[in-house]
Amino acid sequence: MPLSPKQTRALLDQLAHFPNKKLGQNFLVDGNIVRKSIDMAELDANSHVVEVGPGLGTLTRAILSSGATVWAVERDATLTQHIRDTVVPEQPKLHLIEGDCLDYPRAELPILQAQSDFKIVANLPYAVSTPWMEAIISGPLPQRMVLMLQKEAADRYVASHGSKAFGAISIFLQSVYTAHSKHLVSAQCFHPAPKVDSALLRLDLREDAVHFSAAARECIRGIFTQRRKQLGALCKRATHTEALDWFNTIVAEGVKPTIRPEELPLEQWQKLAHRLA
Asked: C-alpha distances in angstroms, 266 versus 158, 169, 170?
């Protein structure tokens, strides 16, 4: 069973550990959300799972109880040692490293497992969710991700073109993953309670995934830094000359020449990915 808010506070006091806001340390204390995460991931004894920021080990224990093998990365030295002392001795299927998830986005998952089906189940630190996601979608790709995110980040990931939330990360992510479900999670499900609401998001790998090269991602991120300007003007100033050729082609196909980046549908951006493959 997950730790209650009272048990969480007591354990943190025992460890003489004060939650680090900079590291996004908001510990999940709602058992229903933990169970929902495991149900959404659909784990079994053959599953290989990457977890980011296991914290006190609440979600880690739930993943392990499914029989899955877990590869976890934790940045905080005190929490890493706590899991090594309390969980690792009982769980030979837990592989834990201390480090930054941006340096180890897949928690040193061996390449053999990364080339087969693996999943990610994580309560992501809010400050690093988008750069971490960009590292993940650069490949190898998990078959499924079940992620606890700041609601604002989840909205960006699943945003449709034409909305203010639609941006570069929306394009990169939706080209390789389909959002299967999204559940809002109250701030009261965490200790300490964050000042924002969260969302539990399940993402499934697309069979028709379109990958964006580093050059394509750089070009599109540059375009969206001035998202209110017309796309044509931005492509004329883009570092990659292919961007203007791409723009001229989609205009010839019927796209409005005065269109802004956030108004352009996903499939049109994927044509740029093919040009900058």
From this structure: 11, 11, 9
- Point out which residues pair with 50 in neighbouring strands: 71, 120
Nearest 5°: the CA angle 17, 19, 23 is 120
Q: Which conformational region is residue 39 in: left (phi greater than 0), alpha (psi within -120 to 50 degrees), or beta? A: alpha
Angle at 130 between CA 125 and CA 133, to 5 degrees: 95
pLDDT above 80 for 23: no
Helices 266-275 and 242-252 pack at an angle, to 10 degrees, of 140
Q: What domains, with CATH codes, occur in the chain?
A: 5-205 (3.40.50.150), 214-275 (1.10.8.100)
> pLDDT tens digit string along 33-83?
999 999 999 999 999 999 999 999 999 999 999 999 999 999 999 999 999
Can you name the residues that pair with 73 across neighbouring β-strands? 52, 97
Contacts 24+ apart (CB under 8 A), 183-189: 183/36, 184/151, 185/30, 185/33, 185/148, 188/30, 189/28, 189/29, 189/30, 189/33
